[in-house]
Design brief:
This protein has helices at 2-11, 30-33, 84-97, 156-168, 189-197, 208-216, 241-265; strands at residues 19-23, 37-40, 58-64, 67-73, 101-110, 120-128, 173-180, 202-204, 220-230. It is α/β, with parallel strands linked by helices. The protein starts with a helix and ends with a helix. Bound molecules: hypoxanthine.
């Protein structure tokens, strides 16, 4: 961790980010538009390379709406074969850099039948269905306690502020429960019915590990899902990664405007 932080501080002239943003599939453009310093993950000591399609894989530092921000343009996923500890390492790095608020974004499939592709959903709570936990292993009390509370990961004050921003922009934003599966296979229709029974509104393959670690470290978390598809395939319709990227591309302007407004109001 010391090597990672020293390297980043040198490359960013000791830039001090207050807010971290993890940009999900197809949502990375914010980091192209606002970029003061950019470091490819592959150059950072102890970081892992991002391999998934539609992701760039770099840490981008910028000032947006008066806030110092560090963005992950592309995240690492559990389904790529990395360990839970590896995929959440960047959250610990952000904590060490001074980040207090973390905005997690993703592309997700709709489980709630009233959601349509290109809707945005604030994450109210999550269900960890990945079958493991990023905090398994020896605990480092420098970051947090052994048995951390998880009753309000996605802070209500941040969600209310985000709702106000959305309403001012004329965006109809949903609020719901995100269920994370490991992936990389998409869900079967039976699994989507199960997710609905369990109280989920959207499904995806990310975010939950980072949210658990951020909350454990005492960071304030806001989560936003871009609904990219109706997860429950109907009438033999099939789901592809291309469709997910296509919808997030259509949603990205709305998404970027919302993030900038949220940052201005933090
Ligand atoms: N399921 C899981 N992950 C996803 C989906 C989905 O339908 N869409 C985007 N990410």
């Amino acid at each position: 961790m010391e090597d990672t932080i020293k390297f980043i501080n040198e490359r960013t002239e000791n830039f001090k980010p207050q807010v971290g943003i993890i940009l999900g599939s197809g949502l990375g453009e914010l980091a192209d538009e606002y970029c003061k310093f950019a470091i490819p993950y592959s150059e950072i000591p102890n970081f892992i390379k991002s391999t998934v399609q539609g992701h760039k894989g770099r840490l981008v530092f910028a000032e947006i709406a008066g806030k110092n921000v560090v963005m992950m343009q592309g995240r690492n996923h559990f389904y790529e074969g990395h360990s839970m500890h590896e995929i959440t390492y960047p959250v610990r790095v952000m904590k060490k850099l001074g980040v207090e608020t973390l905005i997690l974004t993703n592309a997700a499939g709709a489980v709630n039948e009233s959601y349509v592709p290109s809707d945005l959903m604030l994450i109210k709570d999550h269900i960890n269905f990945m079958g493991t936990n990023p905090l398994i292993g020896p605990n480092n009390p420098d970051f947090g306690e052994r048995f951390p509370d998880m009753t309000e990961i996605y802070r209500k004050d941040l969600r209310n502020a985000a709702k106000k921003c959305a309403s001012e922009l004329g965006i109809d934003i949903k609020e719901g429960v995100y269920l994370a599966n490991s992936g990389p296979s998409y869900e079967t229709p039976a699994e989507i019915r199960m997710a609905r029974l369990l109280g989920a509104d959207a499904v995806g393959m990310s975010t939950v590990p980072e949210a658990i670690v951020a909350n454990y470290c005492g960071m304030r978390v806001l989560g936003i899902s871009c609904i990219s598809n109706t997860a429950s395939t109907h009438d033999g319709e099939k789901l592809s990664h291309a469709e997910v990227i296509d919808t997030t591309n259509k949603t990205k302007e709305k998404f970027k405007a919302l993030i900038v407004k949220i940052l201005a109001n933090l």
